[in-house]
Amino acid sequence: MTTAADPVARPLLVAEYFGPTLQGEGSSTGKLALFIRLSRCNLSCPGCDTPYTWDWTRFNSRHESRRIATNELRLWVMSQPAKLVVITGGEPMLQQQALVPLVRSLVEDGRRIEIETNGTVIPGPELLDSVTQFNVSPKTATFAGKKVAQSTRINPGALRVFTASGKAIFKFVVSHKEELSEIARYEEEFDLTPLWVMPEGTTRETVLDRMPWLADEAVRRNWNLSTRLHILLWGDQRGR
């Protein structure tokens, strides 16, 4: 079996890695965590809070990403105390074959691995076997942009694989109440459970303003609610 230390293991295209910090979203909110943020995405959402992973009209790809050997990342993780490792992006599933040896080695070393994904790429069996949890965040029409076709941002086959795996939670970013009926439709069609909603926003004020009405809707619809803890604590700082 190829391991992260094996010279044939492919490097990953990384935007940044940082921690220990706290997981700010979803079912692991508040847990001590390390983050590995991969570069590149297959969507170009106007509401994206990490455009430096894909928007080369505003950012320089040579400055914002570099190839890092999986063993270098493994050694960094093993030098840190946090047991939770969050692999995010961008869209990390675009590099899933190169991720497999890293994820396997970290799981063998006793780390919990969460991969954050937009849910458009079908996970392969090797990654499904190794990952502890997928945090799947499908994009609504509002978040992705009205000009983006549903077939681009919603992949029924991928969502059904994530659901069947028993390793996925589903998390939607919400800006407006009008998005909730769309989320409910996906919940019913693809059996998206457990389901979290959280307020879109990169400032404390925006997050706190949207939390009360979103909390009421979450209770009414039997959904879970997530804040954006890192925004409340540190604002929109990178590396936090």
Give descriptors for this structure.
36% helix, 240 residues, single chain, TIM Barrel, 10 helices, nine-stranded mixed sheet, alpha/beta, globular
Describe this structure in words.
The mean pLDDT is 95. Helix 4 links the parallel strand 5 (112-117) and strand 6. The protein has helices spanning 61-64, 70-78, 96-108, 125-130, 141-144, 150-153, 156-165, 179-190, 204-221, 229-234; strands at 12-22, 32-38, 66-68, 84-88, 112-117, 133-136, 168-174, 195-199, 224-225. The chain has one domain (12-234): Aldolase class I (TIM Barrel, Alpha-Beta Barrel), CATH 3.20.20.70. The chain has 10 helices and 9 strands. The protein is α/β, with parallel strands linked by helices and 240 residues long.
Number of strands: 9
Number of helices: 10
Cα(first) to Cα(last) distance is 35 Å
What is the level-2 CATH architecture name?
A: Alpha-Beta Barrel
What is the H/E string? EEHEHEHEHEHHHEHEHEH
Chain-averaged pLDDT: 95
Which value, in Å, is the CA radius of gyration?
17 Å
| Sheet/helix structural class | alpha/beta
- CATH-assigned fold name: TIM Barrel
Number of domains: 1
How many strands, what sense, and barrel or not for the largest sheet? 9 strands, mixed
Can you tell me the overall shape? globular
CATH superfamily: Aldolase class I
Percent of residues in β-strands: 15-25%
Question: At the first level of CATH, what is the class?
Answer: Alpha Beta
Poorly predicted residue ranges: none
Strand order in the largest sheet: 3-1-2-4-5-6-7-8-9
Helix percentage range: 25-40%
Keywords: 4Fe-4S, Iron, Iron-sulfur, Lyase, Magnesium, Metal-binding, Queuosine biosynthesis, S-adenosyl-L-methionine
Family: Belongs to the radical SAM superfamily. 7-carboxy-7-deazaguanine synthase family.
Binding site for S-adenosyl-L-methionine: 90, 137-139
Binding site for Mg(2+): 50
